[in-house]
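Reopening this ticket.

The earlier resolution said the output was attached, but the attachment link was broken on my side. Pasting everything inline this time so it's all in one place.
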Amino acid sequence: MDNPTPKLVPAVERASRILDFVARSRTHPTVSKLAQELNLAKSSVHTLCQTLVELNLLIKRSDQAYQLGPHVMRWSNAFNRQSDVATEFASIWDTETEMPGATITLTVRDGAEVVYIAARNSEFSHSLIEFRAGMRLPAAFTATGKAFLSSMSDFEVKRLYADGLPEPRTPFSEQSIDGLLEDLAAIRKRGYSIDNQEVAEGIICFGAPVLDSQNTPIAGIAVSLLIEDADETDRENLITNVKRIAKRLSVRMGADLE
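Inline output:
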């Protein structure tokens, strides 16, 4: 049976829409602008804005337009204190049932390396490579590392690897800056990264970044499986799931993906 749609309190829902619009707007909206864009009665918007100003959630400017108030920042700071990407990752994978047999990892970037902060290894990974918390690998070879690097400019990547790429781990590891930059450009276009046996022969990984409230990558998530088991259907399923999990984590971390 489908869960019933929760009943929202109208005034709270309208106030939330007003705050969202003010937060996203590149200019400072007036009551008239808010009423027009949100399809609300002007009188209702006026009353709600007055209340939000009293609560320090909005500031009324001298030109009668509105901007976010200081109370919003207190909520933001509290959210950041209470958010833990590793904990959120664990809570998601504990309920994940669509990727049986896959290895799932979570990393953060430290310079030219990624550091693993959480991992769920499948049976195959123990025979080829076992991911574990605290493990470090070159960002240029890993799916999560490339997800991080794809958010950087070519100039920043070249500066990071001014002394060249690290020693290859396998014959498939990228060995030139130009090749890495081409790979990163492709990642930006398709929206996910691939480690095709660059870390361990026989394993293919698909990765995506986890974003914070500034839409900046704070972690990378990847799923891995034996390349011999990765037919086209499996690959599409893994890619869909890793992007979905990355998006769910990003939203929990405060990212604005709309």
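Reporter confirms the inline version is readable. The longest strand covers residues 217-226. The chain has a mean pLDDT of 86.
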